[in-house]
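Work package 3, deliverable 3.1, input record:
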Amino acid sequence: MYPIPIIAEALINGLMLGAVYALVAVGLTLIYGVLHIVNFAHGAFLTLSMFGIWLLWEHAGLDPYLSILMLTPIMFGLGYGVQRFIIGPAGHGRDNSILLVTLGISIVIENGLLVVFKSDTRTIATDYGFRVIEIGPLLLSWPRAVGFVATMATAVIVWLILNRTDVGKAIRAVAKEKLGARLVGIDVNHIYAMTFALGSACLAVAAGLLMPVFYVNPQTGGAFVLVAFTIVVLGGMGSVTGALLGGLLIGVVEAASSLFLGDSLGQLGIFVLFILVLLFKPTGLFGARI
Amino acid sequence: RAQPAAVKIGLLQPMSGFLAGDGQLASIGAKVAVEEVNAAGGIKSLGGAPIELIIGDSQSNAEAGAQATETLNDEGVSIITGGFASGISTTATQAAARYDLPFIVDTAVSDAITGRGLSNTFRFGPSFSIATTIALANLQRLNDAAEDKAKTVALVHEDGLFGSGLAGLMQEKLPDMGFEIVEVISHPTPARDMSNVVLRLRSLNPDLIIPSHYYNEFVLFARTLQQQRVKPKGIYAIFGGAASSYRFVNEYPEAAEGVMDCNHWGMPDHPATAKLMQAVKDEGTFYAYNTPTNYALIHVVAQALEKAGSSDRAALTETLKTQDFDPTVMPYGIVKFDETGQNQNALPLNTQVQNGDIKVIYPEDYAQAEPVFPVN
Amino acid sequence: MLEIDRLSKRFSGLVAVDDVSLRVEHGSITGLIGPNGAGKTTLFAMSAGFVPVDAGNVRFEGATVTSMPPHERTRLGMVRTFQIVQPFAGLSVRENIAVGAYLRTPDRADALAEAETVGNRLGLGPMLDFAASSLTVAGRKRLELARALATRPRLLLLDEVLAGLNPTEIRDILPVIRSIRDDGVTIFMIEHIMQAVMNLCETVYVLNEGKLIAEGAPAIVCGERPVIEAYLGQGAAARLRAEGGQPHA
Amino acid sequence: MSARDLFPILPVLLVLAVLPFLGLSGSLLNLLIFMMIVALAAQGWNVLGGYGGLASFGHAAFFGTGAYAAAILQTRYGVNAWAALVAGVVLGSLVGAFIGLLTFRSGLKGSYFALITLAFAEVLRIIANSSEITGGGAGIVVPIDYGFENLQLRDRRFFVLLAVICVGVGLVITRWLDRSKFGAYLIAIRENEDAARALGVNVMNVKLGAITLSAALTALAGVLYTQNFLFLDANVAYGPWISIEALFAAIVGGLGTMFGPLIGAVVLLGAGEITKEFSGGIPGFDLLVFGVILIITVAFAPNGLAGISLKSFRRKTRGHTARSSRDGGADA
Amino acid sequence: MLEVRNVRTGYGETEILRGVNLTVAEGEIVAVLGSNGVGKSTLNMALSGILPLWSGEIEFTGHRIDQRSPAEIVEAGLVQVPEGRKIFPNLTVEENLELGNYRGDRSRRKAMVADVYATFGRLKERRRQYAGTLSGGEQQMLAIGRGMMSAPRLLILDEPSLGLSPLLVEEMFTLIGRLAGEGLTILLVEQNVMQSLEIASRAYILENGEVVVEGAARDLREDARLRQAYLGL
Ligand SMILES: Nc1ncnc2c1ncn2[C@@H]1O[C@H](COP(=O)(O)OP(=O)(O)OP(=O)(O)O)[C@@H](O)[C@H]1O
Ligand SMILES: Nc1ncnc2c1ncn2[C@@H]1O[C@H](COP(=O)(O)OP(=O)(O)OP(=O)(O)O)[C@@H](O)[C@H]1O
Ligand SMILES: [Mg+2]
Ligand SMILES: [Mg+2]
């Protein structure tokens, strides 16, 4: 048994890390909710965003948190364009084709990055990367705490967009009833692209929050996508609040199980939890609904 | 006088995929060696035939490694070197065996690679068992020499072939050496986070941490240790990747300071070392062990060709089995392959990051500096 | 044939079917009518096993089938159609019907032949090789009926299969339905098209807000005040009277 | 199903069987073997994903089980390789049936099913990576011992032949799906589960049958993998690569078609080899080109490559602006 | 207000409409009749811009709309309540109505929702319920309500009475009459032929992808051929 502060710290750590997972998952769940496909390019987009943050740091000296403000619109635009001009036309609106196209895009991005940046691992050494917040015996990572707060803020924004704006309602409408949407004057292709754009913009934020504590190489995104899948299903596919809560839960489970079982089996803990939830509450812990 | 036909040498390396960085470093070393051999007049016993390097990309996975080996064979190489990772090396040497194509593995460490009865397979570098034996012997000396001795140890390893294999061996041997193993923590590659591993260490506060993981995880680990203010007496990595990588040392000098590693490593004062470091720098990347190992390996192949006086595969295999070779930049004394194909004299070096540079501390023959222990 | 005994179903607060008992006689055509949202489809879904019951019992030919899975009820001879049509969209009309026919034969040629026969009987002949997704709503309703019929049922639960047909088309299909019954298939149908109900059904049950409010011969039931108020409206009642149904005031 | 139904399969098998004896180089033989292994896994995937509409991301679970079973039984228990092959296929099917039992019971389909299969494969990968019997991270090396009785063929042309025969079995099974009641039921479930149920289809049993069959074929591919490469580790056996490859080949080739998986595997792996030629030695460039080719293929052959050749036979009446038939109505 | 000239279109290679001509004047109710599968809904989809024309022209309030996107057509005031409802099952009743006003004047949205509730009391009771769980008839009400929300100039109703109880059918026809009285132009596709002809001013009959009969509704009601073909009399 570990001393209480260690356990507490692990759980808080889990929450903070889970928040960033959640952000990746929110993008995924949005795209899933509307396009009904699992976006295999999500990881590659995250990697791309992380390289974006790194480039801005390396060549413009921009702080990663500031870079988020620059990168978010760029990723938004990129996501919009990729959906509108590649996935849309090449996918013919069929689930399987879209799936393959996103797979193809991820191959292109990953290897494009490999060609340009080689496979080197890059990191950003900010002066706050190692900073901790001391609360009694607890040492909390400062950049992680920032990540937590920023994630919450982003999630609230996404939620507001989805539930309080016409575009958001249109996104949810298109998810289930395309023809009906077109008949009330919704431009379905535009909404698809907006969804993809929104999902990609979330990744820009996630990338900015990750880079001070993590590294990037052309494969990095993959490590987060698998866990993001898990979160999406746990939370209920297409559910933004579900993704957020699912992310936090996974973070805590991962922390707890790696503290008590070791990291390798900690991963097992995530998947076992995942399987159990699916078997006993198949629509996810928080219900599937976008 | 017509130039004799070039002798083709295959270099199998992960040029793409998650190990591509290692492939790149290896190919830099091999290319330098090829240039040197050819500049010195090629293979004299073959009438000055130049050697030509053909790179096969194993794409960081085993099937592609086998397929690339087949392609190298189609292209008519006389011998293949490289392999890098154990899984790739296993399937690739096997594929080469069908054609009696000699294959010298560079840095893959799994004991099972040699000793499968494949007569074409050789290994240049040390295997697991060789490396751990030496690493532990050095550790013992280090600790014996210290005033404030380390007693408790935590093992932190990646859960693949390499990390688990090492951890297994050490769990066997460390207790006999008087160390108490307080914790064994494994983690997956890639890892997203090391804070929970470090938290456990913080609560256990071991004297010594023995990590074995790939580069990215080591960096994450070392940075998190620093952040969480875990300060053991020493960090003693085995094949740790990072403590013998200049990238790490340059980018995170504080986290790197004092870290020790027992790894493949070139002789620091060998003239080729400086040249290779420069070549790596010219490519815009950072020096690590892959470069000198593959550099030396090409030289060994050139010597074998010279001695065999033939580019015939059987002749080369025979030569490799029976003759001695000069390992150039690698600290192996004389290269001699035993009946299983293992280079008997293969030897890892102990390095320590001191004042922002990587210094060899053991064995004395090659040492550049005295070890600093305990660090904290 | 079918006995429904004190069946109830509640959806989070809303009682969709409230303690309903009714019986469908062997060889009859029995109707189920009632305002929108009265619970008719839910009652059917429970009878066929697609929605678990909250309370009550369903008996088919004397055997209790309340908790039997739907496919087994179909095997026993009780088949439903869907109000919101559920075609196998990617398959042709012929293949759609053949899936039903496979219930009674393992042989592909037999199943396809049966599909053709049934398709022709229901006027789907020209469309047999079209994709089901290209059918109009009314076409899909007929497909629903054809598929159900191909399973050689003994009790058909038809949920608004006539919706979307014009009066002439309805007139043309009524004899088909009667002939199905004459072949020994009992029919229990939900229908809003009163022309059909009046013509076909020997007995109708009227559901309102989950409760049974009337039952009996259609001409009589349609004259009852609660039925007119909740369901028919004065205009329709008048028209039915004019057309010779003569319900009492 | 009659003998005549099998007719279209024969010429294809014949061509594939003759191919290795035309003096192909070692790398082409190796490629051919790998194509057949992937084709077989993709055929398995197609049974469930193409015919049953249950796309899985975790066929590695079956592939790996077949592969590990063959390797472990031979190396640790001295079981004969042919017996190990049978055992591998049986165990693979059992894993399939088990996963099916758990997931279908709770009605999982669509992306849920896809992701839960992925999770199962990951669990197996993590377990295989850390347990003793699989050799843990070090993996298993099957000792070389050439001989027909050991299912290790020194002359690889015959191994190609063996793999082609296995693919032939896959083709026959797919053909049977096209012509049988079971196949019709499976397709019906894919198109509309509720409707199938209403027509007397025992949805659970049919799905279970499909996943078992699917797993058996993919496990067979795993056994062949073991016998060809004689080395396995957790990432090879249970890693996501084979799940992706199987899905890729089946979809690119043409879902729910007999020759789709085979065509897909041949074209994808072939294209991969060809792009490698043109990569100019720049790491990643070949895969980049491959990715672009993939996207273009999907854009211009949305029904899969098998769909192109069949296009002229396709019913012209098929709806283009497919009307949505699900409107989530009050019907349960 | 609406002019359809020589419109040809279909699905894939199958031609469904083979040169349809039709006009609707401001404030009229025009009925389109025809047996199952003649192409009434196909015509509607073409009018709404969902199905591209093979040839022919569509003019609405004096402007060509046949090359416009569905969104632009809605914006121009031509709105359709489609066959089979096509409501948004995962949105609440109220959200469905709000989206009906997607291209419309937002400032009037609240008042319009209140209007719809006044017409369909049942919808108000169910305002927070997900539309997908409504009964068939309730869904139909919602679809009509959603169509009204965009304040259309021309409303196309495709079989609005499908699945409604007789009482509601009657109410619906009353509603259509009322809407027309308020100045809305209506194109009505119905199987309920008799009642349609009662409220319509003119009607078209489609057969085989062409208009075979057109005329004043009153005259058509008496037409023997029509009674035979569509009224089952
Ligand atoms: N899954 C569900 N969740 C919540 N409410 C439901 C659900 N299914 C049905 N309802 C409600 O139950 C009531 C009865 O629905 P049902 O479909 O049985 O009506 P119906 O009599 O068939 O009506 P209609 O003639 O309009 O088809 C309706 O008010 C409907 O909104
Ligand atoms: N998506 C489609 N693909 C192919 N054919 C279609 C499609 N939709 C409709 N059709 C065909 O077009 C013809 C006209 O259909 P449409 O829906 O316009 O008929 P309708 O007159 O509205 O009939 P109903 O009164 O039954 O609604 C029908 O024969 C139908 O089978
Ligand atoms: Mg109903
Ligand atoms: Mg229609």
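The pocket of magnesium ion (ligand 3) is lined by residues C 40-41, 83; E 135-136 (CB under 6 Å).
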